[in-house]
TrEMBL record:
Biological classification of the source: Eukaryota, Viridiplantae, Streptophyta, Embryophyta, Tracheophyta
Coiled-coil region(s): none
Keywords (A to Z) from UniProt: Transferase
Keyword match DNA damage: no
Protein name as catalogued: Glycosyltransferase
GO molecular-function terms, A-Z: quercetin 3-O-glucosyltransferase activity; quercetin 7-O-glucosyltransferase activity
Length: 463
């Protein structure tokens, strides 16, 4: 790697959704004339080398290298407590390593996942700016940021049983955010470690040099205005996957997936009528109780819509046998359902046969649905997803939020509501939002201009 080219350290939280987004950022920055060292856990590096193709593309670039971190927590992260184990191991193992890398190389800046708040400690006194990249939506970021206000106003902890009561202390969301739409951590005790960790980490963004968000101004303008009061320098550069395409830096076939994609589902989709199929997937971390799985399955079968469903091998709690779950479900599914262990999601969402997306509203999945113009049936699992799904329903009007319950009757009713009863209405708003998303990442659009500004600002650092 030559030392004349500006060098950036990129450090995501070790989880599929986060690594995925930061790899996309890397692919946008490399051709702009920046060298990049990408810090990655050994577990994620193994996964990436298994099935993804992105590492081949990146490794062939002379200005790129992975730096593999050994010794990080490698267990699941589907609860706040388990996430805390990851935070602890990051603080212990990665802080000294990051500091060493900053001191060893002439680094222009660090772009760290905003969840890795300790990056600020690692860079302290070195004069190297740290830019935070939050892979969540602006609306979820702002809800996390508002946790101290919710506590001081007495809206947290949640007392009583009415989860539909409106929340008044997340500014800009007063008219529609219910208690049940707060980030899942807010449902815990007030002393809960994760609740405070999430809030403290988010507040630390005010100390970062700048904030990068994978969103676009037309989607989250009013909430971005709230955030700017505390973090004035924000680069909104998303949707990243669409941005890569608009700059001709990616194709649908390239993959960042940690799992093996089952592409046979694309042939199955080819045989279905336009906009007839419900695509169902709960991302890379969410888990279901077996009862919930069966309620979803009955609901999907009863909806009489053809469906393509991703059953990850660790989707069902306590069961690690994808084949067994498949056999159980396939008994009544053959007629109109198709099950896969992992799908090429962007390709699936872009397929003309897909009419709606049953999603947990992880931020990547939400943006992928927005760009593809596919209406959503939302079933949030945890963290930011509760906020995203409320915005999908009442703010962006891109689908229906079935939060907290997934009994078979409700699943059937809401799938039909989105795909039949209100089909035209949702398709119109989804098409409109997809157009705005594409406009933002094309030359002259807000995200396009912000990426150019980010690159210029980095090049000017430390000169
Ligand atoms: C979690 C959070 O919930 C999310 O909001 C946060 O920003 C990152 O961590 P995750 O559960 O992984 O993320 O969901 P999501 O953000 O939607 O990312 C999942 C990714 O996996 C998407 O890019 C999606 O395209 C991909 N995917 C999912 C596949 O490629 N195939 C599949 O079968 C399922």
């Amino acid at each position: 790697m030559d030392l004349q080219t500006p060098h950036v350290l990129i450090f995501p939280l070790p989880a599929q959704g986060h690594v995925n987004a930061m790899l996309k950022l890397t692919e946008l920055l490399l051709p702009a004339g920046l060298n990049i060292t990408f810090l990655i856990s050994s577990k994620d590096h193994r996964s990436l080398c298994g099935y993804a193709t992105v590492h081949l593309r990146l490794n062939s670039h002379p200005g790129f290298r992975f730096h593999v971190i050994e010794g990080l927590y490698e267990g699941p992260m589907d609860t706040g407590e388990k996430l805390s184990l990851m935070f602890d191991s990051l603080t212990e193992v990665a802080t000294p390593l990051l500091r060493k890398l900053i001191l060893d190389f002439p680094v222009r800046c660090v772009i760290a996942d905003g969840i890795n708040g300790f990056s600020l400690d690692a860079a302290e006194g070195t004069g190297v700016p740290v830019i935070f990249f939050r892979t969540i939506s602006a609306c979820a970021f702002w809800a996390y940021f508002s946790i101290p206000d919710l506590i001081s106003s007495g809206e947290l902890p949640l007392t009583g049983t009415n989860m539909d009561e409106l929340i008044m202390n997340v500014k800009g969301m007063e008219g529609f955010l219910r208690r049940r739409d707060l980030p899942s951590f807010c449902r815990s005790e007030i002393k809960n470690y994760t609740l405070h960790q999430v809030s403290n980490i988010t507040r630390r963004s005010t100390a970062a040099h700048a904030l990068i968000l994978n969103t676009f101004d037309d989607l989250e303008g009013p909430i971005l205005s709230q955030i700017r009061k505390h973090c004035p320098n924000i680069y909104t550069i998303g949707p990243l996957h669409a941005h890569l395409k608009s700059r001709s830096l990616s194709t649908l076939e390239s993959s960042n997936s940690f799992y093996k994609e089952d592409k046979t589902c694309l042939h199955w989709l080819d045989q279905q009528s336009p906009k007839s199929v419900l695509y169902a997937s709960f991302g890379s971390l969410a888990t279901l109780e077996r009862d919930q799985l069966l309620e979803f399955w009955h609901g999907l079968v009863n909806s009489k819509k053809p469906f393509l469903w991703v059953i990850r091998k660790d989707l069902v709690l306590g069961e690690n046998d994808e084949d067994k779950v498949h056999i159980d479900l396939e008994k009544g599914t053959k007629e109109r359902g198709y099950l896969v262990g992992w799908a090429p999601q962007e390709e699936v969402l872009a397929h003309p046969a897909v009419g709606a997306f049953l999603t947990h509203n992880g931020w990547n999945s939400t943006l992928e649905s927005v760009v593809a113009g596919v209406p959503m049936v939302s079933w949030a699992f945890f963290a930011d997803q509760q906020v995203n799904s409320r915005f999908v329903d009442v703010v962006w009007k891109l689908g229906i939020d079935m939060k907290d319950t997934c009994d078979r009757t409700k699943v059937e009713r809401i799938v039909n509501e989105v795909m039949v009863v209100r089909k035209e209405e949702f398709i119109d708003s989804a098409n409109h939002m997809a157009e705005l998303a594409m406009k933002s990442v094309c030359e002259g659009g807000s995200s396009y201009n912000n990426l150019d500004r980010l690159v210029e600002d980095i090049k000017a650092m430390g000169v």
